[in-house]
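The records we work with from here on pair a chain with its fold. Each token is a code from a learned vocabulary of local backbone shapes. A record is reproduced here so that you can trace the correspondence yourselves:

_____
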Amino acid sequence: MGKSILTSILLLSSILLQAQTVVIEETVEKPNQKISKPSNIQFGAIWDITFYGGADQKGIAGTLANSVGINFLINAKYKLNKHFLTIGYLGFNTENYGFKKTSDNNSSFPNNDTNNLEKYSLGAISGGLGMRFTSNKKAFLEIGAFAKYNYTRDLYFEKNDKNGNVNEVTIKDLNYINQFNYDAYARLGYKAISFVAYYRLNDMFSVSNIAPVVYELPRLRLGISLGM
């Protein structure tokens, strides 16, 4: 009798142990994720549209209607701290300088004709370096300098012939326009919109047999920019 009871108890215990179900099974592993730090270098791009912003310079006056300039600049920004960063630019630049002669002193420059329209057009590869201060509200002030290599230096003008027809003339590769221009600039903006001012530091024209005197066009250009 005792053996029967003991045998029953052992069988019942075996059945209960086999009937247990694992409710939660969890394997704990050590975390192996690397936390990446934000990079101090950021890349962006900016479009500038500029116009004359200055007064007559040495005998040739600029006209706003024919002075549109466009810059396309890619940039690399290096963050120094929360509010300051350095910024480098590389891109392409076109500038148009519509003008009219302002006195008899330059009646023969760049020609002695009375034209309907006269305009210098420059195309350049440009590079710059600046310093930007950014506030907590994404407003910023930036100052710096640019160097521009003028790979095109053209004079365009329109004049009427004796029959009243309009003739368009383009003279290319003008040797009396300097190959390099140098600008100081300032940019004031908020997020992706800014106002920009460029001031040319060198004379645009060099002395030559065509231009025996260094005439000059307005040095200041003002514009608006889109991009970061």
User: Anything to note?
Assistant: Helices lie at 2-18. DSSP finds one helix and ten strands in the chain. The first strand starts at residue 41 and ends at 52. The chain has a mean pLDDT of 84.
